[in-house]
User: Fold this.
Amino acid sequence: MGAGISGLAAARTLQKSGATPVVFEASPVAGGRCATQEFLPYRFDSGATSIAPRGRSLEAVMLQELPKDGLLQVDKPIWTMEFGRVSRGDAVKMAITRYVYEQGINHLPKMLAQDLDVRYGIKVTQLEKNNSGYLVNGEAFDAVVLSAPLPENAELLEMVGEAWRIGGVRYRSCLSVLLGYEVPFEAPYHALIDPEQRNPVIWISVESVKSPNRAPEGHSAFVVQMGARFSSEHFQDSDYEIAREAQIMMARLFGEKFNTPAAIHVRRWQNSQPEIATSFETANRNGTTLILAGDALAGPRVELAYEVGVRAAQHLMQK
Ligand SMILES: Cc1cc2nc3c(=O)[nH]c(=O)nc-3n(C[C@H](O)[C@H](O)[C@H](O)COP(=O)(O)OP(=O)(O)OC[C@H]3O[C@@H](n4cnc5c(N)ncnc54)[C@H](O)[C@@H]3O)c2cc1C
Assistant:
């Protein structure tokens, strides 16, 4: 269940081994937090900003198995912003190879989903045990992989008496503010991080520097991510209030021209990244055919979510 990176990895691995997986996806598109949003003439990666596969299995999938059109290595590093000042970032972090897709990061899950039976717009609301496996929304399956952020599986797990498997896993929320400007912007970095994470804004991705086709000539596009504290305290505030905080930081860093965006959109991620995680073994220790997957079992990164999905499939294949 769930056509995020983890669910797609599980389904893809199972399909390769000869199984016939079905993926139920609540939303109309694949990708979950690997999301791209277009507000013409701008295009933003509103969840994961880039992918740094660090030699994990996703790297071979991206570089050897999937079509590579639009795949780009991000050539500019991440710098820091502290006390309203921009400076060079950590040399080790700078050396990590990061990828994006010109079409948007969501191009990756789209490609992963292409040859799979993904049923879009179908939220799984019913889970029951039967003699040979499970009923998902009334349909029989031998095994089930639940790959939504773990707390979102609580109701389904309760239906089969296994809510305890979520343990203490908790996610933090994140508000992403997408801003487009009719002002050009050039920089020697593609993103800025606040290493202390004390300010409301902790991350700024310069989408139009990171990749071509994010903003027209003479324009610029940014994704401003708000920190965990600000995001939880202001999650229900109006878009106007949330965006205003982001605009204040933009003007402080880059000057008054960046106080007045031409496009503003606020994306609310209730379960953005796990802050209390668990391990695959802990969540799946009783050897069932109801497998929990997703990034809470490995860490808040695309390549780790993929790895968990592969692991879930391997666990089922062994059975
Ligand atoms: C703001 C932000 C910035 C990030 N930045 C980075 C980054 O730069 N680099 C990086 O590597 N990672 C980053 N991450 C983390 C990365 O996006 C995630 O770790 C990864 O995408 C998680 O994939 P997943 O498959 O585990 O979960 P998800 O992507 O959440 O997928 C779960 C899927 O399940 C579906 N679903 C949920 N409930 C149901 C249901 N009942 N029935 C059917 N479908 C359901 C959802 O619609 C969703 O598509 C970021 C995340 C956020 C939010």
